[in-house]
Amino acid sequence: MMRVILANKLKIRLMAVLAAVSAALPVQAADFLVIAHRGASGDRPEHTLAAYERAIDQGADYIEPDLVATKDMHLVARHETEIGETTDVGEREEFADRKRSKTIEGRLVTGWFAEDFTLAELRTLRVKERLPGLRPANTRFDGLYQLATFEEIVALVQAKEAETGRRIGIYPELKHPTWLLQEAGIDTVDLLATALRKAYLDDADDPVFVQIFEVGPLKRINALVEVPLVLLISSEGGPYDEPSMSWADIMTPSGLAEVAAYADGIGPYLGHVLGEDGTPTGLVADAHAAGLAVHPWTLRKENAFLPPPLRRGESESAAGDLATLARMVVASGADGVFTDDPALVVQALGEGD
């Protein structure tokens, strides 16, 4: 009974915060960055050129490709090195013998892995929707798109800049760089630094952020390029390459001061920025005091990803009130946000202007 009472009180408190934020329009968010998480992945299969282009057309300030590497040292956009979940590789008889199990950062994963394929082999695959149960409309695009290389993503951004006349940023994340170096001998830090220099995107004023969930690789890339760097922060645990560190310690004022020595911002789990009742925590203020920008992740429109007061209807896949959550993030003082649905966030931040 006590647990039910506390839950109801929390819901009432959250609803009060939501009402206060909604009443505070127009939102002053002129410098707030809308970062398209894996592209407009709420509308198209993630990490495809189609998803990135749609995000740009919807007004995103930055597009975010997660980068893994092929056996022949090409950077390609996938959320994980395991590609069976997001491609048709499991249906390809010629690659049946590539299926295996690997322990990635302490987690046993079975499937097919990008680092076991050449780029030419990956080019024969086609992408499919990662969340078909929640995003059935995206499955109509299954089989249409190839995996995208980082070079192709840069070329797309440059073409869209020429078409639109506006600056479009790129926000790459290196996935498992320490593990890939140790287990496969692939140095994705060097590959990305080289790619950025080749594209003339390695200066401090270029519209690029590089993000990683690890400390050592960020420090390494800090010595190779001048672009802003972001330490990603997960919901629990700590950085894989620094087992003695915890995210909780890193998010203290002294921990954030240490981060500021090698990075320009943090990308925390949204729950570190907004409390369960919807009010801001002290993280944004502490990060700003250390000179760090704050870009939390991830806003998604589906009920499955929203707090109960923002859900609409009974279906987990139905769209809830993402606009109010976006305004809450702005009200927290954060400098930007990752979202699967850039069109909805752009619209929410523009309402009342």
From TrEMBL:
Residues 1-29 form the signal peptide. PROSITE patterns: GP_PDE (PS51704). It catalyses: a sn-glycero-3-phosphodiester + H2O = an alcohol + sn-glycerol 3-phosphate + H(+). Its EC number is 3.1.4.46. It comes from the Bacteria. Keywords: Glycerol metabolism, Hydrolase, Signal. Residues 32-349 form the GP-PDE domain. The keyword Cell cycle does not apply. Belongs to the glycerophosphoryl diester phosphodiesterase family. This is glycerophosphodiester phosphodiesterase. It comes from Qipengyuania qiaonensis. The lineage of its organism: Bacteria, Pseudomonadati, Pseudomonadota, Alphaproteobacteria, Sphingomonadales.
